[in-house]
UniProtKB/TrEMBL annotation:
The keyword ATP-binding does not apply. It is a multi-pass membrane protein. It comes from uncultured Sulfurovum sp. The keyword Transmembrane helix applies. It is found in: Cell membrane. This is Integral membrane protein.
Length: 171
């Protein structure tokens, strides 16, 4: 039995099943909103941890000026662990992402990312942050994904159904 030739269908302007594959429309978040969410996370979570590392672990700014890498490590490792816990427990949301109605999803399944991909995404975030050439990647792509999104197969979307905030009423 001969295989159906696709070029004849194209030549005669008939659609084939191969040409009609539809991809789901994903509401990717813009770079500006993702930057707002990241800055919110940095100022809510990282800065207090950095101040703790300066004044609790070290003896102040003079000691930190000698041990800069260690001071940042004492702040960044708990920061990444806290981000991982938030993302895993709150369906891909950090406090900054929740404030901006963003959500991290698995790129292939469009569901909640696995714990491994969340951990890998957060630790590869360090390379995306500290090497400025990687900041340009989202400006050349439609989906606005950064390096750590590619490596972990995740993406940040504008959440169509943000969680409702619980309102406590005074008696």
């Amino acid at each position: 039995m001969a295989k159906k030739q696709r070029f004849r269908d194209t030549k005669q302007k008939r659609e084939t099943k191969i040409n009609t594959v539809e991809k789901p429309l994903i509401p990717f978040a813009t770079s500006g909103i993702k930057a707002k969410a990241f800055l919110t996370d940095v100022f809510m979570l990282l800065m207090p941890l950095f101040y703790l590392s300066i004044y609790v672990v070290f003896d102040g700014l003079e000691d930190v000026s000698v041990h800069r890498v260690e001071a940042w490590a004492y702040a960044m490792v708990p920061f990444l662990l806290i981000l991982t816990i938030f993302m895993f427990k709150d369906e891909g949301r950090t406090p900054g992402a929740r404030a901006q109605s963003l959500k991290v999803i698995d790129f292939h399944t469009l569901g909640k990312p696995s714990l491994f991909s969340i951990v890998f995404r957060n630790f590869s975030l360090l390379f995306s942050i500290f090497i400025p050439i990687f900041w340009l990647i989202p400006f050349f792509r439609k989906d606005k994904r950064m390096l750590h999104d590619f490596l972990s197969a995740t993406c940040v979307i504008a959440d169509p159904n943000p969680p409702k905030e619980k309102v406590f009423k005074a008696k």
